[in-house]
Amino acid sequence: MSRVRVVDHPLIQHKLSLVRDRRTPPKEFRELVEEMALLLAFEATRDLHTREVEIETPLMRTRGKSISGSGLAVVSILRAGLGMEPGIVKLLPTARVGHVGIERDPRTLLPGVYYVKLPEDMGQREALILDPMLATGGSASVCVQLLKERGTRRFKFLCLIAAPEGIARLHTDHPEVEIYTAAVDERLDAHGYILPGLGDAGDRLFGTR
Ligand code: PRP
Ligand code: URA
User: Fold this and answer.
1) What is the pLDDT of residues 48-67, one digit of tens each?
2) CB neighbourhood size of 186 (10 A)
3) CA atoms within 13 A on the CB side of 116
């Protein structure tokens, strides 16, 4: 579990309780997912490089630090990763944004890729992959593999809830991926849903069920 960072800040844990609650309607659910993503990104970007810059305040010259998002690509796994994207791009307005559409087969739980649109220079970028749920780990693993084929070498996976099974799978396939999550839950149920979890993230974000 050494490459797993559980972000236990009280703000994120409070919001996690609200997104778990079955009574939280889609509007609030979307707002909470966006806010949690922003808080997760705050932790996941701690190691961003900064450079010294000269600044003139109204009173005098001084020095400060500046970062650029130019070495990053935010990659949302459709659909549910879209719910996290606004929070992250607010923090990293200059990062490029890619999308990978992946859907689990409800029977086999195997991931199927149906859409890929990524920045051309993925080989020069660190990927921040967004998906609220790491369940069996199949979708995350396929996404990392796809990015590796385009040259990406550094990965952070940001999710709201991870199952132990998903963490094990992702780290067996791709040990270098750093996982940032608000919680590591108990286990998967017979249908591949995380327990206690929050239900189906895509359906709750978009009100489809
Ligand atoms: C959900 C979720 C992840 C995936 C996790 O998406 O958003 O992408 O399942 O499961 P895994 O770790 O077992 O692969 P889903 O396939 O339901 O698609 P959706 O976002 O379009 O609803
Ligand atoms: N996908 C979800 O949306 N929720 C789960 O619990 C597992 C996979």
Assistant:
1) 989 999 999 999 999 999 98
2) 12
3) 12
